[in-house]
Write a structure and sequence with these properties.
By secondary structure, the protein is an alpha+beta fold. It is built from 9 helices and 4 strands. The protein is globular, with a radius of gyration of 17 Å.
């Protein structure tokens, strides 16, 4: 059974799932020139399982950049010259029940133009290349279609002011989750995962989708921190 849904089906499903497009969290960003696509080596076996849903992972950039501001390999995202990033796309992951498909055969190669066109959404050429190779290749045949689906999903989201929320006393994972749901009424809290690191700082928001790209209850592994878990949000220096 082929795992890849056609891009036509995927985009039609998105049209049904998303009530409208909303702008969110603007920042100044000029994509750098990209002349090559980073080489990616699989970190696990090829796994072919039917797709049962999807996860859109949104990384909290200030936390990611906390220890990487002087790292040249992350200069675009963390160096400050391209503006200050907030939530950025980590990836769109197909789910497969108790497992997930990964590292599928890719008939079409990612191009430098594909990478550059999405650097303000996913601010790392290596990240874009890896997400396509590990996850996108199991969804669609063309990298451009995988990235197009990500752009459509991202454009339909409104982001809370987590900078302001970070200053609240007694912050919890539940408050982070509820703030996202308040900004996106079509998203129930049960479909919003919150990943904290071992010290309780926000790392990621994980949005759980059905096969037709509608919000769906997260599995325990994607749900992440309990609502009562104490949380902190790094705002940057």
């Amino acid at each position: 059974m082929a795992l890849r849904c056609s891009s036509k089906f995927a985009l039609a499903a998105l049209a049904l799932a998303l009530p409208g497009v909303a702008h969110a969290q603007a920042y100044q960003c000029r994509a750098p020139q990209v002349t090559r696509v980073p080489a990616i080596s699989p970190d696990g076996p090829r796994r072919v399982v039917p797709i049962t849903g999807y996860t859109l992972a949104l990384s909290w950039s200030p936390e990611f950049c906390k220890s990487r501001q002087s790292d040249r390999s992350h200069a675009f995202q963390c160096g400050g010259r391209s503006g200050s990033f907030g939530l950025v796309v980590h990836g769109l992951w197909p789910e497969g029940g108790q497992s997930w498909p990964q590292w599928c055969a890719a008939p079409n190669a990612l191009t430098p133009a594909d990478v550059r066109a999405n650097m303000c959404l996913m601010p790392s050429d290596w990240l874009i290349a890896r997400q396509w190779a590990k996850h996108g290749s199991c969804m669609v045949k063309r990298p451009a279609n995988y990235l197009k689906v990500i752009r459509i999903l991202r454009s339909g989201l409104r982001f809370p002011d987590y900078d302001r929320i970070s200053r609240e006393d007694g912050l919890t994972a539940g408050r982070i989750r509820a703030a996202f749901a308040d900004a996106n009424p079509e998203w129930p809290e049960a479909a919003i995962g919150v990943k904290l690191n071992g010290r309780g700082w926000l790392e990621e928001i994980r949005l759980c989708y059905s096969k037709r790209f509608r919000p769906a209850r997260c599995t325990p592994s994607r749900w992440g921190a309990a609502d009562t878990a104490p949380a902190q949000i790094w705002r940057g220096l």
